[in-house]
Design goal:
The complex is a heterodimer of chains A (389) and B (245). Chain A is built from ten helices and 13 strands. By secondary structure, chain A is an alpha+beta fold. The radius of gyration of chain A is 32 Å and the shape is elongated. Helix content of chain B is 12%, strand content 47%. The chains are: A alpha+beta (389), B mainly beta (245).
């Protein structure tokens, strides 16, 4: 009988203990795949939403524009460079002008960024077509979070105040023509969207822009003196960093869960070796080498990993399929700081499943081997008398 | 204008030259230095807050220290030309107020930090024409319409109700470039200090804010307790280092 067969026989003999250990390990296995899959799904959804609503395939930023430095916004605009006009005319790019201002509504004053966007643009998914308002009112588009903060709805009149190109105050009433539903809070909170041509007129900044978003990154990227091209990697870097920090936090939880499952296997092994020391002595006396006995116990532990993988696959597969099809609802996810939708759809790449399976198998084997090292120092005579361990 | 001509014909009083009147207003309000202690009462529907401040003004520099309430005590504001800094004792930090922060209101009042940076010498910033005569607080006043001399002046139009004898503004309206009323000031009381007439109680209203729940509220009331012109200022007061002292 081979050591593997012996290991299988021993596991079967252990009955419910074996299944409890395997189940505990399978929970960790499923939880890791679920959690990582959820983060992967969130990551992809957030990136896709940011690209669709905010970044396109990259942006030209005015040299002074820094979204994290409100002090630069006042001066971060310049005439649209001639080199980019063919892209703009073909609809492959569109300019956005950003100026600071304030919104007054129902006695509240909110500092905002006033953003001008061409109403007919097709580069981003921002519903700018709503700004093609035929009435004499100045149309304004709000994001859902901004509308909630201001307490305004479609048809309400807001007063918008700004300073024109030279610094003089101006103010106009604007009618909310639409509420934009987007998970990208960076185009929503603290911002109002106006038709670009109107904003040019109101601010006496005709033909100027703060950033120019492209549908497809131009190759080669033209070198422009007042403008820098920001690639998707650059624009998505913050989002990726934020998700990475969430991943680190989640990993700690997984490590704890995993350690608990491993502790269960380790304990079982230690107890098993202690309880079966006469059997160990007998096996050595019958001619098995110490290495073969160690291998038998290690196989037993490794088989917990195999069983856990099988168990996890049995109940995890339908669960994962269901969740990735139906998504998971996270109310209030818009406040998480990056583009999250109300429903999140986990994604389970093959590399994640294979990697986690391998991790479970290797760790279970290693943890099973650790307590067996004592067997190498064991004298068969001591073992037969129930001593030595 | 018709009213003005009628008044002139009736009384024989010639309407004063608006620019000359502006010069006199500037002269009345400006001194080498000005020190004042005042109370700012901010009335909102959710409650009333009262702040007590001590200010020093010299040319286009100003230093303000909050004396009360306890929570705000020690907060200091420094204006040097077009730059503004705020120091808060709880954080022990000095922050330069610029960009979007300038648009925020000062301690929830109807005044924004931007208003504090406004050109104080009217004559330098505006040309004035006398457009009418009126009466306010029992005093005869001239109504002046001010037009900004340069396009970079924050308020391109202003309307002033000026006491022609005392050279003090009793009412003011500030307008946007396109003529929207943005801010109003109404002087409720005046007093003579060292031979100059000073507004000792006035209300400021941000008219864009004065709707909805704030519509019937008076806005921000400013009461001057003490004024001293040409008073000596503590050495080094108009410097950033004075904020942390």
């Amino acid at each position: 009988m081979t050591t593997l067969q012996l290991a299988v026989r021993n596991l079967r003999a252990a009955g419910i203990h074996t299944w409890l250990n395997a189940f505990a390990l399978s929970l960790a296995f499923v939880a890791i795949i679920f959690g990582q899959g959820l983060l992967e799904g969130v990551n992809r959804q957030a990136e896709q939403a940011s690209i669709a609503f905010e970044f396109g395939d990259g942006q030209f930023w005015h040299k002074q524009y820094d979204p994290y430095d409100p002090l630069t916004i006042d001066n971060a605009h310049a005439p649209i460079p001639e080199e980019l006009k063919p892209l703009l005319n073909s609809g492959a790019a569109m300019p956005i002008l950003i100026i600071p201002g304030s919104v007054y509504f129902a006695g509240k004053m909110l500092p905002v960024l006033i953003k001008g966007i061409p109403a007919d643009q097709k580069v981003l998914k921002i519903p700018s077509a709503m700004l093609t308002d035929t009435t004499k009112d100045l149309p304004v588009l709000l994001g859902q979070q901004m509308a909630k903060t201001a307490g305004a709805g479609v048809g309400d009149y807001l007063t918008i105040q700004w300073r024109d190109a030279r610094g003089a105050f101006d103010a106009r009433q604007a009618r909310v023509v639409g509420i934009m539903h987007t998970s990208v809070s960076t185009i929503d909170q603290g911002q109002v969207w106006l038709p670009l041509n109107k904003l040019w007129e109101l601010t006496t900044m005709a033909g100027q822009a703060t950033l120019i978003t492209v549908k497809k990154k131009p190759i080669p990227v033209p070198a422009l003196p007042d403008w820098d091209f920001r690639s998707l990697d650059f624009l998505l870097a913050d989002l990726r960093t934020m998700i990475k920090t969430k991943t680190v936090g989640q990993s700690i939880m997984f490590i704890v869960l995993f350690l608990l499952a491993m502790l269960a296997i380790f304990d079982t092994q230690v107890f098993s070796i202690f309880r079966r020391r006469r059997e160990i002595g007998m096996l050595i006396a019958l001619g098995l080498t110490r290495a073969q006995v160690i291998a038998m116990f290690t196989f037993e532990g490794a088989l917990y990993g195999v069983l856990a993988t099988l168990l996890g696959t049995i109940y995890g597969t339908p669960l994962f399929i269901y969740l990735s099809a139906r998504g998971i609802s996270f109310p209030g996810s818009a406040q998480w700081g990056f583009a999250l939708q109300e429903r999140m759809y986990p994604v389970y790449p093959l590399s994640l499943i294979l990697g986690t399976t391998l991790l479970v198998l290797i760790t279970a084997t290693f943890v099973s081997w650790l307590p067996t090292r004592r067997i190498a120092r064991l004298k068969p005579t001591d073992a037969l008398r129930g001593k030595g361990i | 204008m018709k009213k003005l001509l009628f008044l002139a014909l009736l009384t024989g009083i010639t309407p004063p030259d608006g620019n000359l009147l502006l010069e006199k207003i500037d002269k009345n309000i400006s001194g080498t230095t000005r020190r004042l202690v005042a109370e700012m009462r901010i009335v909102r529907k959710r409650g009333t807050r009262t702040l007590r401040v001590r200010s020093y003004v010299k040319g286009d520099s100003a230093f303000t220290e909050y004396l009360a309430p306890e929570r705000e005590k020690g907060t200091k504001l420094l204006k040097l030309g077009k730059d503004l800094w705020i120091y808060t004792p709880e954080s022990d930090r000095t922050i330069r107020i610029s960009g979007h922060m300038l648009r925020q209101s000062v301690s929830g009042s109807d005044l924004s930090y931007e208003d504090m940076l406004e050109e104080t010498r009217l004559k330098d910033a505006y040309t004035a024409s006398t457009i009418g005569a009126d009466s306010l607080n029992g005093r005869p006043v001239w109504v002046l319409e001010l037009t900004a001399r340069k396009p970079d002046i924050a308020y391109q139009k202003r309307r002033l109700w000026v006491d022609g004898e005392r050279h003090i503004v009793l009412k003011e309206e500030r307008y946007s470039r396109t003529g929207k009323l943005l801010k109003t000031t109404a002087v409720l009381e005046t007093k003579l200090f060292d031979g100059r007439w000073v507004a000792t109680r006035a209300t400021f209203r941000d008219m864009l804010r004065a709707n909805g729940e704030n519509e019937s509220l008076p806005g921000t009331e400013f009461t001057v307790e003490e004024v001293q012109f040409d008073a000596p200022t503590p050495p080094g007061l108009f410097s950033r280092s004075s904020l942390r002292r």
